[in-house]
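User: Fold this; tokens only.

Assistant: Input:
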Amino acid sequence: MPFPPPPRLPSGPRRRSLLVASAASAAGAVLVTGCSGGSGGGDGGTGGSPSVSERARARAARDSAGLVARYDAVLAAYPRLAARLAPLRAEVVRHVEAFGGTGASATASGGPSAGSSSGAGASPSASGSPSMGSSSGAAAGGGSASAGVPGTEKDALGQLAAAERELADRRVAALTGVDGELARLLASVAAAGAGHAFLLTEGAA
């Protein structure tokens, strides 16, 4: 007996909202994993020095905080993207917390200054892409963008997507050499970042 065809995923805004919801549930699982044992580690350091896993966890928290700063810079330049970017930014803030960082000054409200986000601007990711420092006020229509933010919404979204993708790739590469719990957390957050990169570019043509 032939099987019925699988249901088709709706296109357009409805499709994007379903993908955001899926990414949000994945982020919830990430938080459960991250909060289940932040002090664990099978490669404990000697003489009080941090272990490889502890250093990797701290680096991951800084990288996620730097990504929050990138979202803030784009939101400062293009406030009308808030509805699209706020859910993704909120997940990145939760990633900071899952890695043991603090999201207190990186609240998931609509777009504080990029320079105020957990000191993230001081340690941008190692992608080599330009830092998106704080900006005083770009026009909502996209004429004058913040420093380091491209001059069009499409290019700004593309830059964010590239940052998410690059960080996800580096996290996958870092899986070896850390303890099992942190490896699972890195893999989960890397998968969420890859999903963010897709959502940032999907429908942007």
